[in-house]
Amino acid sequence: MKKNIVVLTGAGISAESGIKTFRDADGLWEGHDVMEVATPQGFAKNPELVLEFYNQRRKQLVTVKPNAAHYALATLQKYFKVHVVTQNVDDLHERSGSKEVTHLHGELLKARSSIDDSLIYSRSKDILIGDLCEKKSQLRPHIVWFGEDVPLMDKAIEIIKKADALLIIGTSMQVYPAAGLIDYARTNIPIYFIDPHPKVAKNDYNNLTIIAESATKGVPIAVNSLIDTML
Asked: Homologous superfamily of 1-19+65-105+150-231 in CATH?
């Protein structure tokens, strides 16, 4: 039976494809305070601004491509059961060939009802004021904003519990609730932490390997190590 490899990814893996990370050093995202464009309150106050902000993110997404790290993860599926749990809202994992992807923070290429979270629609074009769901409420980006629950967290926890090895890529694992996922992994499974500026130390977790490289350099190293040691 194939072993379960679980991969946790954050902004660092997408940044190498040209997708800007969530906040620049000045705390702004594309010139906007995140509270204006990534909260329910911001949407209630100025829905046009929020919709246009995500329309621009969606347009940028189609101009970028998966990178070597995305493709390296997809190759793992030849040897293991692989499930990617990502904080990213792009579709680069899927485009590179990963089959099992859970998006903790939503998906840029989907829209949902602003009154019924279960009404979710594929959406590659702009969302405009007046675009309604079947219950006649305004559509909004299918994004988990600050202050909102993370509906797929329980699913992610169950995935982590079954992991035979864990890869953490391009995320500081400092922001909750996602940062708490590692605590659900079984004791002593191999953990690979791939980040050019790792915020963890060797003795923070049992059986931890730190690869202080960018995702495109570090992920192939981790993938080859898993194939060598776990088959």
From this structure: TPP-binding domain (3.40.50.1220)
